Structures are given as C-alpha cells and as structure tokens.
Amino acid sequence: MSGLEPPFSRDQVATYLDTVIDLEPTPGAEILLDGIADELHRRGLQPGEVVLVALANGAALLRCFFGVLHAGCVPALLAPGTPAGRVREIAEGLGARTLVTPARAGEQPASGQVGPVRVETLDGVDPQRHDPGHVIILTSGTSGVASGCLHSFPALLRNASRHARSVGLRPEDTVLVNLPLNFSYALVAQALAGLTTGARLVVTGPPFTTTTYQAALRDHGVTSSSVTPYMVRQMIAADWRPPQRLRMLTVGGEQLSPVVAGVLRERSPELELYLTYGLTEAGPRVATLAAHREPYHRLATVGRPLEGVQVQLRNPDPEGVGELLVTSDTVLRRKVGMAEGRVGDCLVGPNQIATGDLFHIDEEGYLHFRGRLSDFVVTGGAKVSLASVRRIANALPNVVASKTRIYQTPLGTRFDLDLYLHEVGPTESEEVRRQLRRKLVRTEWPSRIRTMSLHEFGHK
Hints:
Elements: H1 10-17, E1 21-22, H2 32-42, E2 50-53, H3 59-70, E3 74-77, H4 84-94, E4 98-102, E5 113-114, E6 117-121, E7 134-138, H5 140-143, E8 146-152, H6 153-167, E9 174-177, H7 184-197, E10 200-203, H8 210-219, E11 224-227, H9 229-237, E12 248-251, H10 258-267, E13 272-278, E14 285-290, E15 304-305, E16 310-314, E17 321-327, E18 334-338, E19 347-349, E20 352-361, E21 367-372, E22 376-379, E23 382-385, H11 386-394, E24 399-409, E25 412-421, H12 426-439, E26 448-453
Parallel strand pairs: 1-10, 2-3, 2-4, 9-10, 9-11, 11-12, 12-13, 25-26
Antiparallel strand pairs: 4-6, 5-6, 7-8, 8-18, 13-14, 14-15, 16-17, 17-20, 19-20, 20-21, 22-23, 24-25
C-alpha cells in the first residue's frame, strides 16, 4: 500500500524530482525513489513502519523521502551526522528499526546498499506503526531530541499550497532550498510548496555564507528564497544586495527584528519581502506578512493567519497578551516519541494546538509576538530544547544536577550550562565536557559550561 496517493501519484512525483537541480549531486540518486521502496519491501517492513533518513540536503534526500512514502512507510528526516547515540535514542523513541544513511566511501557494495545510500536494521528496536501516508517531522528544538509530530502527508501538502499562495509562489519560479530539509520550514514551505505549484527547486545545504548564497542565487536564476533571521543579520552585515532575478525573499524560523526588516526593505526596494510565522506542530505555517506592502509599524508583526487557519488567545492578560491557539486542518495528528516540556500535550481541542507562544492580536487581525512559554530558545538560527540539554547532562556519570541560563548578546540569544558534580577538579571537569560533546549536536552546545560542586546547587 503506497503512501503516495492523489493528487500526486508516484509518476507525477518522479517527473517533478527529475527537474530538481542539485548543487552537490549524488551519483546514482535517480534510482532511489523506487530503489528504497523495493529495499524496504524486501526487508519485510510492514505498512506504516517508521524509517529514519539521515542524509544531507539534496535530490537524494528528496527521492528517499518520497521513496519511503511510496513504500507505504512513514519517513522521519534526521540531520546528517547525528551522533550514533542520538540516532539510537530517536529510533527507540519513535519505534524506527530502519535507518537510511549515505553509503560509505570505498566500501564494496553490501547487503542493504541502494545506489548511493545504505539501509540498515537497528537491532532491539520495537517497531511502531502508523497509517500509510503519514510523515514524522522531528521537533528537537521545541519538545525534546527524541520526539516528533505525526502529520498526514495530504495535510502537509495543503499547508504548503496555502503558504505558496500567501507569498505568491508561481509555477515559473525557481526556488533555492538551502535550509535543512529535516526542518519543517524547508520541507513544507519550500520543497512541498514547489511540488504543489510546479516551481523548480535548486537544492544545496548548510553551512550558510553570504558569498556562496549570492553565487547560488545568481548562477541559477533563483527567483524565490527563504532564510532565517540569523542569516538576514549576516547578509546585512555583508552589505548584501539581491541579484536582479530574485523576486522574493521569505523569512521564518523566528521573528525578524522590525529594525532589521526595515533595513532590508530599504536596501532592496524592488524585492518582495514576506515575514512568516509557524511551528512544526501547526503543519507548519500559520501567518504571513507581505512586508514590502505594509507601513513600517507593521514590521513588528508576523502578519495575519493563512487561509484556513483560525487563531485565538488563551488567558489574555489586561494588555491583551495571551498564549496563541491555532485551529487548522493541517495541525499534527499527535506527538510521537518522548516529548519533553509543556508542548508534549499541545493538542487542546479538535484540530487545535496551544503554541506556547505569547501574542497580542490587534483590531485588524495582525499577530504581534510577545514571548514564549516553552522551555526552548532560538540560538544561532536553530531551536534548542533546554529541557533536553539538561536531561542529557543529568544522565552523565558524576553529574548530579544542571541548570541552563539564557542571556542576550549583540549576535542574538545564547545560553550557558551549569553542571553540579559529585567530584570537581580539572580532570573531572574535562571528562564531563568530553562526554557531553558525544551527546549534543553542534547547535545544542552551550556558549559556556561551568562545573561546580554539589553544595553550590541552588546558590547560583
């Protein structure tokens, strides 16, 4: 039973994927759409089983994603280079006994190799099953490193189509995808938006530099690009100017400072600038502001809800600030894996989620972001679950407790980690740092780590 049902058949998806331009092409990727499905069937995977895909941005990743769906299984995209211990934790949390990774260079083709990738079975993982035609998008930044949102693939396509309409994406556009496809923003608002409109994709990946970004825009005639506020700040610092073909720029991932948005608009008066708001639990896009058409005071907002999305505030204070509730037919079906923090039970009504974000809604329906209730931060352009960082640290030998401390710098939000140890000394401190490096991914690494004795706990 295939998870690729109308409006997009296997043949339609294959035809679209053939148009994708891969700036770092993987030889042999063209066989993966059917090859992955065949290999999963050969291994006896049951309909609805979860398959982890840990590949770098590119056509191979997209072909594997759709190949897993074509096999009737449920894809979950992982960041490439995720540490083995983290992969194991995620696999056990999601019930995913199958992992897709790049084939190892120089090795002879082995059992489970499909062109440029290898499929392996993780021993000792009890498989969980969902209905075919679903996708898991991991939410390591908002609800823990081993949790995800289970979404209906048709619902993701609806959200992609609505977002595309809100930013005016056209069939003749060329979309640069340089954000990580394992995040919902790039997967839905770019890759699936391209599929629903017929826009051509040009795919590359991190790390981001203004120089390579500008070259990709120019060399491939890109007309639509999406970036994060972290990237925008780098672009402005480098005195970036859009190439002539670039028609529109969308910004998401966190709120863009109205001052920075104003500078970007003044430097690029011909550019269509869209500020967006969303979260993975919502499927993911919620609101859009056409910043190039609005007065300057509106740059402090994230716009108004997309078509088909209703919003309201829970428990607003006397100033009219409350937690944003989102109602839509694209919100997650349920949380899966090991959710941490208050967002684990974000479903609060039929097709309704509590976002953990504080907003004010003005008389004209524009959304003004005011803060967060959730235990996560956006640092260096990535969402980090502080609850997960503390849990991982607390599980290390010699660590009794931990605290995270958030602060602001000219470069954005940062956090420090305090570790309280049974035994404290230079050797013990270095050992706990070494073990922590094996458990955390780069974006989760604190700016500073302090190691202290247990008796100091509660006094700092």
